[in-house]
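Summarise this fold before class:
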Amino acid sequence: MLSASVIIANWNGAHHLRVCLDSLRRQTHQDFEVIVVDNGSTDGSVEMVQKEYPEVHLLALDDNYGFIVACNRGAQFARGEVLVMLNNDTEVEPQWLEALCRALEQHPEAGSAASKMLLFERRDTLHSAGDMLGPDFMPMNRGVWEIDQGQYDADLYIFGPCGGAAAYRRELWEQLGGFDERLFMYLEDVDLAWRAQRAGWKSIFVPEARVYHHLSATGGGTIASYYVGRNTILLHRRYLGGRDWLKALPGHARVAWEALRAWRGEAARARLRGILHGILGLEGKRHR
């Protein structure tokens, strides 16, 4: 079976990281390594990993460079044939990694594989059955908030995996250069999926690879509002043609109008600032 490197970006997530690492110790797949890339945490994360998880490779960065940079640095260090990005606020079932690696082994046409992500506190409720694009090309989590009744299990091919628990074939990762650091954080998975599709790779959904996820445990809020607003427009500027924009513009107008209606809220103002920066083509770390 394919070997794997599980890469976990961490920033002040010690309270969740222990649960995540404990679940990785219970994996049925044995040929894998775990890499934690710490973004300058001040909550004792580094010391905890060093003391309690000696088998884990720890890369301690000197500042918070964001999720994307952390994942890319981990991938540079990794040795596995499959690079698996896993959020620090997750718990994976014992067969999770084996299911992902087996699926990629059985489908050589696939460059990536998506886990079935469920809510940590409501384990019958989907968070993501892979990424998709709506009719207006807005990125979406398939099945989000739906009760999991296996309604997506028969769907093999998808747009791409949610980056919170995504497996990438090393060949794809190296061919496309990994996550785009100009985005800083959020929608890096959608961008990579778009590039992979254009390069001829397929992506598959692996329902047996089950993950339980805390929502926005070490992110979210105004930061997420800003980067999702900005990066959605940046991606559409990269990948949509003229006719596609006719479908996308109503979606952008709806999002902007909803933010304007709620402009007194910090998240709404962050979304509007992100939309403006996307229109202006501003990239990199920009939030305040």
